[in-house]
Amino acid sequence: MTNLPAEAGRQPLRRRRGPLVYLVLANLGMWAAMSPLLISGFQRGDAREETGALAEVCIAAAMFAPALAALLVIRLVEPGGRVRDALALRWPRPWGRGVRACLTGLAVPAGLTVAALALGSAAGVYPVGELHWGTTGTWAVGMLVQIAVSLPLFFGEELGWQGYLFPRLARSGSGTRLLPAYLLTGCAFALWHLPTLLMGGQYPGRPWYVSVPAMLVSCTLVLPIFTWLRLRSGSVLPAVLAHAFVSTASVGMVKQGADPTARLDPLHMGLTGWPGWIVMGALVAFLALTGRLRMPPGVTGPPQLPARAPLATTA
After folding, report:
1. What is the distance between the alpha carbons of residues 44 and 309, in angstroms, rounded to a whole number?
2. 3-state SS of 240-259?
3. Which long-range contacts (CB under 8 A, 24 or more apart) does 169-174 make?
4. Which of 22, 88, 124, 253 has its CA 20 to 30 A from that of 66?
5. pLDDT, tens digit (0-9, with 9 covering 90-100), for 79-96
6. d(CA 69, CA 228)
7. Considering the entire predicted model, what is its pTM?
8. Is omega for the bond preceding 127 within 30 degrees of 0, making it cis?
9. Among residues 169, 207, 188, 231, which one has the least CA distance to residue 43?
């Protein structure tokens, strides 16, 4: 007789254990990377405040934690298959489709940011300054360069969240059963930022009991948009580009378009505030109602774990 049933029973346990191990490693990496700032008592009190050298180094190290956690889990907990297939680390095919997918990854957050700023301006919470096309064009070129330079850091995040975690949580979901996967990944994505939220990173000057719920709302709304970009292309690259735009150019657009003398409050401006929640919520509702947030065939989870050779026993 053989022990094949016992081995078959262990494989689902190994698959369920993978996401938990991933979350533990990703969060440990984040807290470890941000510990120098936490120990020094760093606090960001103004949205216009520039990031110092130590903060830049800590943030860069933290952003690689999700990718490193995903790689360790794939190698040690869920062995089998190629890493680039397991994390959707590929160029969308054909080549022309890949270019369109990447441009969409930039255009969608750009359009959402413009809509959020327009809504905030109409509501009187976003004071628009005087725009000069010459300086605005120079700024836009600089932002594109910054996005290109920072792409490795955002690969560090999205290889974990979009490449690894979401497909594992959604492997057996369909229709409304996908909702827990979106909510759990969004909440995990938000709470991973807890060290920076405690230091006023995303919401300067706000206490944690305001910034943490606000981040939960922002991440659970933006994550389905990143996931849609990843699913429609079969690659994490468009999601990486969208995340890079949201974290760099979108924040820059808030500053660039605002009255230079006005106080900037991310809770009321851009994609991190309530105007952004409204426009992102509208897009997510449209994507859900039109079936664009469903898992397509072939993106239902990790590759099949290889069965070990049966161990013959005698009775």
Report:
1. 56
2. HHHHHHHHHHHHHHHHHHEC
3. 169/19, 170/295, 170/300, 170/301, 171/15, 171/300, 171/301, 171/302, 172/300, 172/301, 173/295, 174/294, 174/295
4. 253
5. 777 888 889 999 988 899
6. 23
7. 0.89
8. no
9. 207
Tell me which residue of 118, 102, 140 sits closest to 242, measured CA to CA: 102
Res. 104: pLDDT tops 70: yes
Segment (H or E) for 150: helix 133-160
Q: How many CB atoms lie within 10 A of CB 34?
A: 24
* pLDDT, tens digit (0-9, with 9 covering 90-100), for 264-311: 999 999 999 999 999 999 999 999 999 999 887 655 454 443 333 333
Backbone angles phi, psi at 258, to 5 degrees: -85, 155
pLDDT of res. 304: 43
CA distance 191 to 208: 12
**pLDDT tens per residue across span 212-235:** 999 999 999 999 999 999 999 999
